[in-house]
Design brief:
The chain has two helices and four strands. The protein is an alpha+beta fold. The chain has a four-stranded antiparallel sheet with strand order 2-1-3-4, covered by helices on one side.
Length: about 90
């Protein structure tokens, strides 16, 4: 039995040990990737962009940062726009 202190989601002030990338087609998750925490946020976004290019049916990718922030990049986003979004993951 779950109590009010036991929740499925981590607390808001927690940190994660790796970045999470979810490649999505609409609301459906196609692929999940984990990237080690020692990578830079800019490199993580490049990994997500490359995965978006490889999966022809993908519409966007969700990237969760180490502090729990999430951003979305879309298949039609250019390099500069993705790099600007990566600054939010720092």
């Amino acid at each position: 039995m779950m109590t009010s202190n036991d929740s499925a989601a981590p607390p808001a002030d927690s940190t994660f040990d790796r970045y999470r990338i979810e490649i999505c087609m609409g609301d459906q998750v196609i692929n999940k990737l984990g990237v080690p925490a020692n990578r830079k946020a800019l490199h993580v976004i490049e990994i997500a962009r490359n995965e978006l290019k490889h999966v022809s049916t993908a519409t966007h990718a969700k990237v969760r940062g180490l502090n729990g922030d999430e951003i979305e990049i879309y298949a039609m986003d250019g390099w500069f726009r993705c790099q600007m979004k990566a600054l939010k993951l720092r």
